[in-house]
Amino acid sequence: MTNAFDQEQAQKEGKIIPKSGVDENYDQAEDAIQKIKNKLEKYLVELQNFFGCKVSYFGSDKKRFQIDVPESHTKKVTDEYQLEGTKKGSKPSKRYSTPQSRVRLYLPKSSPIIIIQLLAEMLKAEHERTKIIQDLNRRIFEKFSEKHAQWEQAIMCITILDVLCSLAEYARTFSQDMCIPEIEPIADSHKIIIENGRHPCVLNVDSFVPNDTKMGVDDYASILLITGPNMGGKSTLMRQIAIICVMAQMGSYVPASSCQLNLIDRIFTRLGAHDDIVQGQSTFLLELLEASSILQHATPFSLVLLDELGRGTSTHDGNAIATAYACMVENDEDPTEES
């Protein structure tokens, strides 16, 4: 299979073209096309000898093989040549078809259509080759589908291996602190302790300031309210905590000097601001719908990230919504929250 076709060509064109000697029917179709090309070249030489100048073919698809003759040599053209078109410019020429290479057919409606004989032969041979390629592709994919379960298992193994290698390479090349996180089982307490944590996607940035995060331990509440100026890194810190938690539960090294946390069952986010014009939903409505969904589905072992809840309305109303939401979460002792 590896040497049966050009793999680079298959990736570019999206179809498998067999190499010579792989499929007998395909080789026969290629030989037929090559014979027609040889006829065309031979006929072109005869035309060049007749006109005493360089003559070439013109056209594409079903209008291929028109004879392009320089206008200065068209005096030899007889009534047997049918004019198909002209070219203006510095090198004007005229394009013809000849009775030697065309036949006249009549459809049932008696409308005559002139078809270049060599072109008809070429189109027929190319159509036959296309059918063979399609059938060959069908047979290959059919064999591939028969072992679908094995291929799927192999792909899954390669995918997991790729992830593990990527995490290992990340841990090896990261220039700042890395540690093995300490994961504790789900319990009545739900804590997150991260010392000198960094965002995993911010690499080798000297101006990046590492952050400590403590939630649900000692005198630290399970809700963390983050305030600060624009561009101060509030949203980055929120994403940083979520990604570190995901990496820790994957068994990966994490970008921090130390990391301890209980298992988290799900992570909910309400980040950014956008509306849905098609559904007729405003930014504020989407905020409330997503926030409500979080309250309905989050558990005491969930991590919730809320970024500027209530930004879609006035400052006073937004502040009231965010305060009420935080109180509801704290009183119900539901999710571990970051906002």
TrEMBL record:
<keyword id="KW-0067">ATP-binding</keyword>
<dbReference type="InterPro" id="IPR000432">
    <property type="entry name" value="DNA_mismatch_repair_MutS_C"/>
</dbReference>
<feature type="domain" description="DNA mismatch repair proteins mutS family">
    <location>
        <begin position="302"/>
        <end position="318"/>
    </location>
</feature>
<dbReference type="InterPro" id="IPR027417">
    <property type="entry name" value="P-loop_NTPase"/>
</dbReference>
<keyword id="KW-0547">Nucleotide-binding</keyword>
<dbReference type="GO" id="GO:0140664">
    <property type="term" value="F:ATP-dependent DNA damage sensor activity"/>
</dbReference>
<dbReference type="GO" id="GO:0030983">
    <property type="term" value="F:mismatched DNA binding"/>
</dbReference>
<feature type="region of interest" description="Disordered">
    <location>
        <begin position="1"/>
        <end position="23"/>
    </location>
</feature>
<dbReference type="InterPro" id="IPR045076">
    <property type="entry name" value="MutS"/>
</dbReference>
<dbReference type="Pfam" id="PF05190">
    <property type="entry name" value="MutS_IV"/>
</dbReference>
<dbReference type="InterPro" id="IPR036187">
    <property type="entry name" value="DNA_mismatch_repair_MutS_sf"/>
</dbReference>
<dbReference type="GO" id="GO:0006298">
    <property type="term" value="P:mismatch repair"/>
</dbReference>
<keyword id="KW-0238">DNA-binding</keyword>
<dbReference type="Pfam" id="PF00488">
    <property type="entry name" value="MutS_V"/>
</dbReference>
<dbReference type="GO" id="GO:0005524">
    <property type="term" value="F:ATP binding"/>
</dbReference>
<comment type="similarity">
    <text>Belongs to the DNA mismatch repair MutS family.</text>
</comment>
<dbReference type="GO" id="GO:0032301">
    <property type="term" value="C:MutSalpha complex"/>
</dbReference>
<protein>
    <submittedName>
        <fullName>MutS V domain containing protein</fullName>
    </submittedName>
</protein>
<dbReference type="InterPro" id="IPR007861">
    <property type="entry name" value="DNA_mismatch_repair_MutS_clamp"/>
</dbReference>
